[in-house]
Amino acid sequence: MADKVAFELVSPARLLFAGEVDMVVVPGSEGDFGVLPNHSPLISLVRPGVIAVHEGGKVGSRIFVAGGFAEVTPDRCTVLAEEAVNLADFDRAKAEARLTAARAKVAEAETEADKAAAQRAVSIAEALLAAAA
Question: Which residues contact 55 (CB under 8 A, 6 or more apart)?
Fold first, then answer.
């Protein structure tokens, strides 16, 4: 396993990806970071963005995550995502409807907590549309 790194992507709904890959690029809270074999251990928040899974010298999978946590060890990268969408299965109409609904919730929000949650939903929907563009 010296030339591969084990990668797992887990959402509350299911295990989305598990396998050995050449590299994985994760949208960390402080910026994107690439994980190769023998990476230094770290734990990072994951911001809304795209995880790029590199296999065979090219990007094999692109998966949008809405946020979460990543744990990296020298031989493994595990991402626990709040929500994940494989961009190969992306449905633009659903994503646009999601953005419209989120914007409506911002307008309807009565408390600061509701407004903050609605703004986060708008940010995630916008990031999903940008990722698929």
Answer: 21, 22, 61
